[in-house]
Amino acid sequence: MPENAHECAFCERTGAPRRCEGCERAYYCDYVCQTHHWIYHIFSCNSGDVTTAHHLALAARHGDLPEPVTSAEYGISTAGSPHARIMLFGVYAGLLEGLGVKPVILHRWKEDGNLIENIKRAYEGVSEELRGDYYAWFLRNQHILSTEHVAVQEKEGLTVAQERAYRTWCFIGRPRDTPPQIVSSLVQSLPYNDGLCFELYTMLLRGVFPGPQFPIWMTFGFCACQGEEALTRLRSDYRALIAACTFEEFVRAFTNASLIRLFEEKGVTLCASPNIIDVLSGSPDRQKPVWPLKRYVECEYYNFKNKIIDSRTTKQLSIWGFSSVLPPEEQKMLVSLYKRFFGFETNGDPLQLDKARRAGRLYEFFTEDMLFILKPKKIYKRMLKVSKAPGSDLL
């Protein structure tokens, strides 16, 4: 794509020359547009950890109360009356939107256990007429945050992984007095499905979604999301669900392929596309082979390919034309074709691709349905002439 054809991710004007250095996929007119858009873009950029403070900042930008996990971490859900919750949220919104406190700074205040002191210091640093009614209310009700827990980071000698596991451990209701180092070993010994759910919880509590190098990217439906908005929405739906159910209920629903029913039982809206419904209906043991294909292609794009290749993956890829005897240049042609199909510009429907495979018309699907021009024609026809293997509808 010519450089001047890029669209600014914030104002949507074309000719955006400034590219995000973190992901190299988003473009902006200038520093101003990039700064304004950062609170949205950080959730897909993967250039740093996303915390609940970022979710709080995004809620402040929209003017809506944050979802349950963030509300719990910042004392909003336990503030008391609806009025108190709105007022406390207003205090945070004033910090983030009005005073320009960055989410990483707010997160640090909370983790260091001096949130109240720093809130007061920030507001006292501006003239009285700029502090507003929210801060006046806060001075009368600061006891709401007085039970702020001591940050896990203050425990000496913890790795980042141990810290995150301990946070999840406490969130799911396990004993808080369990040493974080012991928690890590206990997590390692969890049954397989329990471990997958624990890993998902850990990412959700961090405010991020898994990438394709993680098995949970596929088993929990992130593979079926088309675009940043869908990924963010699915993550938010899961965060609302884990705030409404027990860990045991979640694991049981996941194991029985009934997560969709759990959403309904807990009154949590799942804004899912047919593709996401398809994945969640088949988790965790059996999936349509189009999802492992998409995972492989995504991992190839991010250079994670070697992390996911095993005998099962090799079998799953074989029904899409890949084989050990295929020359390297033809392997690249096949990867490029599927990349194009799953990519942002085409945004092809994986279920339609899988349907074409089952009908034995992959080449016709790409050339007639998708209107792809495939050359050399003979090579593509040969590579895409894949017979339907017995039992290959689900792998």
UniProtKB/TrEMBL annotation:
PROSITE patterns: ZF_MYND_2. It comes from the Eukaryota. Residues 8-45 form the MYND-type domain. GO terms for molecular function: zinc ion binding. The keyword Zinc-finger applies. It holds the Pfam family zf-MYND. Keywords: Metal-binding, Zinc, Zinc-finger. The keyword Metal-binding applies. This is MYND-type domain-containing protein. It comes from Leucocoprinus birnbaumii. The lineage of its organism: Eukaryota, Fungi, Dikarya, Basidiomycota, Agaricomycotina.
